[in-house]
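Protocol step 4 of 6: structure prediction from sequence.
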Amino acid sequence: MTPPVTQDWVDLERYAGRWYEIARLPNRFQEKCEGDVQATYTLRPDGRVSVVNECRSRDGGTTRAVGVARRADPKGPASRLLVRFAPAFLSFLPAVWGDYWILELDREYRHAVVGDPSRRYLWILGREPVMADATYQALVAAAARAGFDTARLVRTPQSPR
């Protein structure tokens, strides 16, 4: 299967900031997340991106994961990143880096679809915790066209802000 197409015009400075998870394909590393899932990206001086993922866990507490992202290919597009949440001393191991590909992104940087080339992971993200249904449906349709099993998408509950 050919890899999904990415948005190769991504500007990481504009992409940085807080994103709310609107929906995702179920995955093992978010099993404890009950809702209020958000990610904050901060551009670092070395060109990498600091990543802080947070969610409300089943017990009502907050689960937090801190990581770093870098371009998959230093000369390649900013839309194809690798992200690591394992300790820095394990960075030399390819297995600790996961693909983070920006598949869809509106020109105003308000909503995005992120996945990986294997199509096992998929997230629909927005700058606000609530997304208009028409926008959501358009992003789901884009993910389906890219070959993702969107029937398995799970909406993420977000508490009112």
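Step 5 (inspection) to follow. The two ends are 41 Å apart (CA to CA).
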